[in-house]
């Protein structure tokens, strides 16, 4: 898809961890910015043409007008358009523009942009939990062109409240003792109940060194916990490596980013050195890895497989949404970049390998674990993974905005889909044993991986 970026993954608080391929180089000058109504038409057409399943025009129109009504209800005084009716059988875009025109007639001075933004936000969100409308700021942040700061944790919405899922090491969240399971009931002095994930994230973000106060509810603690945090630029270190006492390489991939393959190659080459001393085993740690770039996930897998081995297959409605990715550099190297793994010894293809996963391993991490398991290349240990197996394609639009649209699903080499079908480890561990260590706790999963390699 020209001008598109492919993505999948779970939402993180400060970087939506979506699996995306870098956009292809521009082959023609950028088009002039679209009007807001032109942007609406372009988004509508993109959804109709590319969404993974056929979409009913009436459902899109209803979602869009619902979003407009939600926006108008928050004005002062609120504006109610529930009595507006389009002519029966009118095209969906005509229905939407009728509502927009009526809103502007009843409330002179309303601008087009916030109305169209509200329409697209609800229309995309109602398709599925991973499709989304990206405003200009959202899109610039995804591209790395907007600097925002935060606290450093992953969250989800549960029973109407934001809940901490995991905490990123070395961030304000980890230094303050924020813990998985903490329920955020207030951000500053505003209640969070009923807010969407997007709304919560927007309130948590801010300028570097600015303060935000969270009121938390924690299991076993009777009184609310109130803590102030200073926002920081959150940079997730993609690859962290160390050597175990036995000489095994323990390589953790926290997220699949643009330079993950270079960093992964550097970690491996540093372990192998001049090749005079072979590495006796590798532990690939994918716990809490919720996604990242698709080519990086394919590349990490390809290190350990023959170039002809199938890593993952994608299937969607359009021709370019269906593709098979193999373990060759043409399927993982960035455009114009050399193969980062050139020069690694052949023994890396046969070195004993253990992969550690947990329930927060998702999307790209599941691609890696599933492929290495299906090809009988590694033993997978830990918890069942998350089961996130869809691709989101990022489609840039006018006014620097974009839509993130689910366009395909992933299938592992054995033909099974990953969406809703978690990777089941060869050695299944309880959650407490599979979890990464916290503070001074022992890393039980790592101990079991070391023992497995020593057999």
Helix/sheet category: alpha+beta
Using only CA atoms, what is the Rg?
A: 23 Å
Beta-strand share of residues: 15-25%
Q: How many helical stretches?
A: 12
Low-confidence stretches: 1-18, 20-33
Helix content: 25-40%
How far from one another are the termini?
48 Å
Number of strands: 18
Helix and strand sequence? EHHHHEHEEHEEHEEEEHEHEEEHEEEEHH
**What's the story with the biggest beta sheet?**
6 strands, antiparallel
What's the overall average pLDDT, rounded? 86
Oligomer: single chain
Coarse morphology: globular
Please give a structural write-up.
The chain is an alpha+beta fold. 28% of the residues lie in helices and 20% in strands. The termini are far apart. 44% of the residues are buried.
Provide the fold topology.
Elements: E1 5-7, H1 36-50, H2 57-73, H3 92-106, H4 112-125, E2 132-134, H5 136-142, E3 153-158, E4 161-167, H6 172-176, E5 183-187, E6 190-191, H7 197-204, E7 211-217, E8 225-230, E9 239-243, E10 249-253, H8 260-272, E11 282-285, H9 294-302, E12 310-316, E13 323-326, E14 353-357, H10 364-374, E15 379-382, E16 390-396, E17 402-411, E18 427-428, H11 431-434, H12 444-453
Parallel strand pairs: 10-11, 11-14, 14-15, 15-18
Antiparallel strand pairs: 1-16, 2-17, 3-4, 5-6, 5-7, 7-8, 9-10, 12-13, 12-17, 16-17
Provide a short characterization of the protein structure:
With 455 residues, the protein is of the alpha+beta class.
